[in-house]
Amino acid sequence: MLKLAVLGLLQREPLNGYRLKQQLEMFMSCSICVNYGGIYPLLKRMEEQGEVMLCAEQVQEDGQCGKIYQITPLGKTTWYQEMLAYPHESWVNARSRFLIKFFFFGYLLPEERVQLIEHRLMSCRLRLVDKKALEVTDDLYQAKLQKRVIEVIQSEIGWLVEQLQTEQLQLAKMSTSAKQL
Predict the structure, then answer these.
(1) pTM value > 0.85
(2) Which pLDDT value is given to residue 34?
(3) 70: which residues sit within 8 A by CB, 6+ positions away?
(4) Exposed end of the chain (fewer CB within 10 Å): N or C?
(5) Contact 69, 55 (CB under 8 A)
(6) Alpha-carbon gap, residue 37 to 46, rounded angstroms
(7) What is the pLDDT of residues 86-111, one digit of tens each?
(8) Cβ–Cβ contacts within 10 Å for residue 77, how many?
């Protein structure tokens, strides 16, 4: 997930590791845990794989040299493939991955956004069915938590339905515009 987020941010502008960490924390802290111990080795691996390249080095105030990275065409292809992929992963990771993808929806076509939203919506609805099927426990706190989990999933479903309607409306307008030409 960190790779997906890093490649997405580098599409906007070249960045060094410090700025990448800042932006990841600012925009995606609800979805991803970021530390320098993860960023710098990832940037090195991605550079070795040809997904990013060093575009400049700056001497910082403390005398250290800061490497600035930019995404390569291969990195853009990798990012795009990961954006449209549905890896088999835990519920928590799938939710985080979707939120990261949603952050970068502006780089995708409306049809692709619809597809991703529909997939997440289906996953949420299946999860809701599973959670509702669980036997309610006699433990007050476990029952309260089970109720809260169901509320959170229902809230996400409602939000996803709104996003899907927005995207479908945009697709319909594009279709109408194309027909008028």
Answers:
(1) yes
(2) 81
(3) 10, 14, 52, 53, 55
(4) C
(5) yes
(6) 15
(7) 999 999 899 999 999 999 999 999 99
(8) 12
CA angle 28, 34, 39 (to 5 degrees): 115
Residue pair 68/35 in contact (Cβ under 8 Å)? The answer is no
Task: For residues 77 and 83, give the distance between their C-alpha atoms in angstroms, rounded to a whole number.
Answer: 10
Question: Would you tell me how many other CB atoms lie within 10 Å of the CB of residue 100?
Answer: 22
Which whole-number Å values give the CA distances from 96 to 18, 44, 63, 75, in the listed order?
22, 24, 37, 21
Residue 31 structure tokens: 């979805």
Decide if domain 2-80 falls under CATH 1.10.10.10: yes
Sheet of strand 52-59, all strands in order from the earlier edge strand to the far edge: 15-16, 65-71, 52-59
The per-residue pLDDT for range 105-132, each reduced to its tens digit, is 999 999 999 999 999 999 999 999 999 9
Structure tokens at 106: 């502006």
pLDDT digits (tens, 9 = 90+) for 136-158: 778 999 999 999 999 999 999 99
Domain coordinates of the chain in residue numbers?
A: 2-80, 109-180
- Could you give the residue ranges of the DSSP H alpha helices within the chain? 2-12, 17-28, 36-48, 73-84, 91-103, 110-133, 140-180
Backbone dihedral angles phi then psi of residue 58, each to the nearest 5 degrees: -120, 140
The rounded distance, in Å, linking the Cα atoms of 134 and 28 is 32
